[in-house]
């Protein structure tokens, strides 16, 4: 089975272009051998995109994080529809190249970086949104760390969105969101996919 991230830097590429229709626009993405969902945008990502578009609040030109971006479909589409700037984070150099190129060819201004660059980044303002279709095959600790990272990075009132199937451990991940954020909500359920949301609350004045 293919991993959610690339399985490794490819020596033999097999590029192809796929299309994604959303809100009267056709988005085009270049994919490659070894990338998750190379033949089409996976259903979980499409559910997450639509949930965030209908539920999230972000000012035009605001910044949001797309963690585990793959070849960039979630961050690219959300950046375009919301009029916001995605920071798309990936661990593999091939994926980073695809992600950067896909944002550019769809006319979306984005920052694309690896995890080391992201961890060292100082935000001028905290991101308003943090979205992820996590790499569940990488293991639960990896996914839990993403939830923790979202809570650290988001500003007060910022929202975290994660798509997960019940069989992938949705109840357990919802408990983790509830514990960190002090709240949790399932904003969408669609064909077994759940979009979890947590809102970072303002710390009370001491």
TrEMBL record:
UniProt KW keywords: Methyltransferase, Transferase
Any GO MF annotation of the entry: S-adenosylmethionine-dependent methyltransferase activity
Entry superkingdom: Bacteria
InterPro entries to which the protein is assigned, alphabetical: RsmC/RlmG, SAM-dependent_MTases_sf, Small_mtfrase_dom
Methyltransferase small domain boundaries: 27-197
Pfam families (alphabetical): MTS (PF05175)
One GO biological process term: methylation
Protein's name in the database: Methyltransferase small domain-containing protein
């Amino acid at each position: 089975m293919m991993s959610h991230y690339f399985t490794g830097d490819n020596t033999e590429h097999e590029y192809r272009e796929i299309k994604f229709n959303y809100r009267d626009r056709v988005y085009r993405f270049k994919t490659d051998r070894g990338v998750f969902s190379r033949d089409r945008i996976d259903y979980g990502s499409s559910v997450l995109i639509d949930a965030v578009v209908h539920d999230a609040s972000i000012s035009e030109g605001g910044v949001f994080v797309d963690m585990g971006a793959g070849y960039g479909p979630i961050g690219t589409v959300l950046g375009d529809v919301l009029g916001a700037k995605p920071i798309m984070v990936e661990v593999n150099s091939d994926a980073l190249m695809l992600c950067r190129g896909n944002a550019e060819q769809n006319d979306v201004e984005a920052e694309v970086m690896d995890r080391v660059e992201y961890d060292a980044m100082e935000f001028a303002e905290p991101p308003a949104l943090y979205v992820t279709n996590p790499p569940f095959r990488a293991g639960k600790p990896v996914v839990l760390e993403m939830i923790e990272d979202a809570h650290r990075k988001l500003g007060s009132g910022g929202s975290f969105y994660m798509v997960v199937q019940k069989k992938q451990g949705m109840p357990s991940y919802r408990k983790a969101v509830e514990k960190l954020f002090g709240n949790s909500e399932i904003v969408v359920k669609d064909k077994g996919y759940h979009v979890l949301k947590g809102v970072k609350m303002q710390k009370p004045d001491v």
